[in-house]
């Protein structure tokens, strides 16, 4: 029977992954049905750290392409497959190697690259960061002027928190469409509707939105914040996929999404193409070894700085 005529259940994927010896690693923004079957679920830093520690030789990764490439860069000996080849990140693609060379020549300053970037751009960076550790990484750099890209909003958040001269590269065109286009009016409407709710926002949102939030942090930091507040309701200003995970972690609280915040690139993975990926094992992630070597150094520098921090990997139930 043709796959298009068959409906795939999450347990079918789980069974096939177990039979074929695959570990399923998924980003927090995946659809809830895929989050359910993941062995490991987390944000970029959690997953990057986790893959270096597991024995499995084969990984099915559910996220976007730059994240899958980080897995491969850190685990060149592992087979990493994905459901679709073109699940990519427009923000990562907004910064080119040519941009980096141009800005480095102009400012002669260290370059910190957000993990949401192309692998060849990471190869030109002094160090990688994630939204969870960007402030700590920039503080740890021995320079008052730092080039930071590609996200201009995260760059402005880091400038605020560190007091350093942060030069966003490529500049105005570097942003995540999911987080950048949240409007203050839209959020204020939600606040009016839920006056008793607190607001958690991702640092990829613009400053006006951050200023309305009770808490600003990465998705891994958002996982911890509800435990620290008495608020029963929280408005979650990041990709809607995060709601399922938070609801599972805190069943007695209510999490309210911003409905427009959907990453269509993350949502390209579904039950059917994930099952087919396991069945065929054809869409494998490859990274040029020379580029991988340089990118690995920049990622490992980040891991060295964050290794001492208490960032535990969440093993999904
Ligand atoms: S949510 Fe934004 S930054 Fe994340 S993958 Fe989607 S487009 Fe890229």
From TrEMBL:
One of its GO terms (cellular component) is cytosol. This is Quinolinate synthase. Keywords: 4Fe-4S, Iron, Iron-sulfur, Metal-binding, Pyridine nucleotide biosynthesis, Transferase. Its cofactor is [4Fe-4S] cluster. It comes from Fervidobacterium pennivorans (strain DSM 9078 / Ven5). GO terms for biological process: 'de novo' NAD+ biosynthetic process from L-aspartate. Pathway: Cofactor biosynthesis; NAD(+) biosynthesis; quinolinate from iminoaspartate: step 1/1. The keyword Iron-sulfur applies. The lineage of its organism: Bacteria, Thermotogati, Thermotogota, Thermotogae, Thermotogales.
């Amino acid at each position: 029977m043709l796959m298009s005529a068959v409906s795939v259940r999450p347990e079918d994927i789980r069974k096939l992954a177990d039979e074929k010896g695959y570990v399923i690693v998924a980003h927090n923004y995946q659809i809830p049905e895929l989050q359910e079957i993941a062995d490991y679920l987390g944000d970029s830093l959690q997953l990057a750290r986790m893959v270096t520690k597991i024995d499995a030789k084969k990984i099915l990764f559910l996220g976007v392409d730059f994240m899958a490439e980080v897995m491969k860069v850190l685990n060149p000996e592992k087979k990493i497959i994905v459901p679709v080849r073109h699940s990519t990140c427009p923000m990562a693609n907004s910064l080119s190697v040519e941009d980096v060379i141009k800005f480095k020549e102009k400012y002669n300053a260290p370059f910190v690259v957000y993990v949401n970037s192309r692998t060849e751009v990471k190869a030109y960076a002094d160090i990688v960061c994630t939204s969870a550790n960007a402030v700590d990484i920039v503080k740890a750099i021995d320079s008052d002027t730092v080039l930071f890209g590609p996200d201009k909003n995260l760059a402005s958040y880091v400038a605020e928190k560190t007091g350093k001269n942060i030069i966003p590269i490529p500049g105005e065109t570097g942003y995540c469409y999911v987080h950048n286009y949240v409007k203050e009016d839209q959020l204020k409407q939600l606040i009016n509707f839920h006056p008793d709710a607190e607001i958690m926002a991702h640092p990829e949102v613009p400053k006006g939105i951050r200023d309305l939030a009770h808490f600003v942090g990465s998705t891994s930091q958002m996982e911890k914040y509800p435990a620290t507040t008495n608020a029963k309701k929280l408005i979650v200003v990041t990709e809607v996929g995060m709601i399922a995970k938070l609801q599972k972690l805190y069943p007695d609280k209510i999490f309210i999404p911003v409905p427009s915040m959907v990453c269509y690139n993350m949502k390209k993975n579904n039950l059917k193409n994930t099952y087919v990926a396991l069945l065929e094992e054809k869409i494998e992630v490859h990274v040029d070894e020379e580029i991988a070597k340089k990118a690995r150094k920049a990622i490992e520098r980040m891991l060295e700085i964050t290794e001492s921090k208490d960032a535990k990997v969440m093993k999904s139930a």
